[in-house]
Each structure stands twice: as structure tokens, then as C-alpha cells.
Design a protein that fits this description.
There is one protein chain. By secondary structure, the protein is of the alpha+beta class. The protein is globular, with a radius of gyration of 18 Å. Strands 1, 2, 3, 4, 5, 6, 7 and 8 form an eight-stranded antiparallel sheet that branches. It is 30% helix and 29% strand. Bound molecules: adenosine-2'-monophosphate.
Length: 224
């Protein structure tokens, strides 16, 4: 076995710089607060959706009980090498070259579903070089979705939900958009989360930011 084989991480990805991570956590809270206060949101709550047993006590921040320790955009989940293709991914010239380099991530939307809250990441051509070609097919084998459309930052998950769900939820939005369903425009948010709010049924909400959020990051591996 090569040295690299022994050192495959849990996952590769872009890790947010501390200041930008703090900013994005605040922005995420602002998003959930404004979403929870939106009349259209309350009106469309299904029984028990988003912990809404008691509408007057609806607290989205509490509902999304878990948040990653380090905010990041996963490029390749390796599970320390147990995942097929991890070794090949790690050995790519582009990956080796990018390791420990700085990147600016562009966030175009924030979204919340009854399972997850996350940010949509628009990868640049440079960043797409580090994106596995099968990332979208893995989740939606029957669909042809644009490369990189699964790219996201998990901001929070409901109590019994795994992080991996955030990218699956994002692809659900993308799939609906691809099929021409733009979602129902149900209002605007202001301040640091200025943008249009769209509703896609089944408790799927997306905020298209009028100004993309840019966060600085380092491409690296997580070995914890
Ligand atoms: P995330 O990228 O949506 O946050 C450690 O678990 C990290 O790897 C998390 O960031 C998690 O989701 C991501 N992850 C876990 N399982 C995964 C999988 N099967 N495919 C892709 N990413 C996964």
C-alpha cells in the first residue's frame, strides 16, 4: 500500500476561513429567522412540519439542532478510503495541486427543507476540476444534472438527519428547476439575506440571493 492510501481523509473539500464561517453562521440564523416570520411560510406549514406542533413556538434555529463543527463544501467523501474511487480521486494531479490552496466560494442561494438547511455553491471552472464526475449521478442516477449542481455547504440538519442529506435536498430543487418548475415566488428577504423567496412544495424553500455571498476557503482533507 502506498502512503497516500493510508492517509485518505474522511472527505476532501473547501473549508471556510474562520471569519467567513462566523459570518455565514450569522447569515444562516438571519435566513431562518426571516423565513420563520414569513406569513407565507406559516401559512404553508403542514402539521408537524419543521417542528410546528405549536405554531406560536415555531423555532427553526432549534429545529435544525445540528450544525457541522467546521463549515465546508465537500468535494469527495472518502470515508478514509472505504468509498470506491477515493484513491483515484486523491491521486489526481488537480487534487494534489489544489491541496491547501485558497479558494473563494460563491453562494447563490440558501435553502431550507424539513430535513436540512444549506447554501448552494456555484463552483468556478477551477473548482469544477476538483468535482467528482459522478457526484450528481450518485444521488440521481436517472437524471442528467449539471456538473457541480450538488455543491453546497450544510448549515444545519434536523435532529435525526445526516449531513449527506443536504446535497440530496439541493439536487431535488435543481431537478425541479431543470424541469421548468421555478417555484412559487412568495416574497422577499432583506438585509444580509436580501433576495427572492421561492416555495417548491413539501416544505422546500429557497432564497435566491440578490447578491452572491463570497466566502474564503482552503481546499484540504478532513481526517478527524
Ligand atoms: P455534507 O457535505 O452535506 O455536509 C462528513 O460526513 C462530511 O461528508 C459531511 O460534510 C457530509 O455531508 C459528507 N458526506 C457524508 N456522507 C456522504 C456521502 N455518502 N456522499 C457525499 N458526501 C457525504
Amino acid at each position: 500500500p502506498t502512503l497516500e492510501k493510508d492517509l485518505l481523509p474522511l472527505y476532501f473539500g473547501w473549508f471556510l476561513a474562520k471569519r467567513d464561517e462566523d459570518y455565514l453562521r450569522k447569515t444562516s440564523h438571519e435566513f431562518l429567522e426571516q423565513l420563520g416570520n414569513l406569513k407565507a411560510f406559516k401559512k404553508r406549514l403542514q402539521p408537524c412540519m419543521f417542528g410546528s406542533e405549536d405554531k406560536h413556538k415555531l423555532d427553526l434555529m432549534k429545529y435544525f439542532a445540528k450544525s457541522p463543527n467546521i463549515l465546508h463544501c465537500t468535494s469527495k467523501f472518502c470515508d478514509y478510503g472505504k468509498i470506491v474511487g477515493s484513491e483515484e480521486y486523491a491521486q489526481q494531479e488537480a487534487v494534489k495541486k489544489a491541496y491547501s490552496k485558497g479558494y473563494t466560494l460563491h453562494l447563490s442561494a440558501l435553502f431550507a427543507t424539513p430535513r436540512t438547511v444549506g447554501a448552494q455553491v456555484e463552483l468556478t471552472a477551477d473548482q469544477l476540476l476538483l468535482w467528482p464526475s459522478d457526484a450528481e449521478k450518485e444521488v440521481m442516477p436517472k437524471d442528467t444534472l449539471p456538473r457541480g449542481s450538488r455543491a453546497h455547504i450544510t448549515l444545519g440538519t434536523a435532529a435525526d438527519v445526516q449531513d449527506v442529506q443536504t446535497g440530496i435536498d439541493l439536487l431535488e430543487f435543481v431537478k425541479l428547476q431543470q424541469s421548468g418548475k421555478e417555484g412559487e415566488n412568495l416574497g422577499e428577504m432583506s438585509g444580509s439575506v436580501a433576495g427572492k423567496v421561492s416555495y417548491y412544495d413539501n416544505g422546500m424553500w429557497m432564497l435566491n440571493l440578490s447578491q452572491k455571498i463570497e466566502v474564503r476557503s482552503i481546499f484540504s482533507g478532513y481526517y478527524g
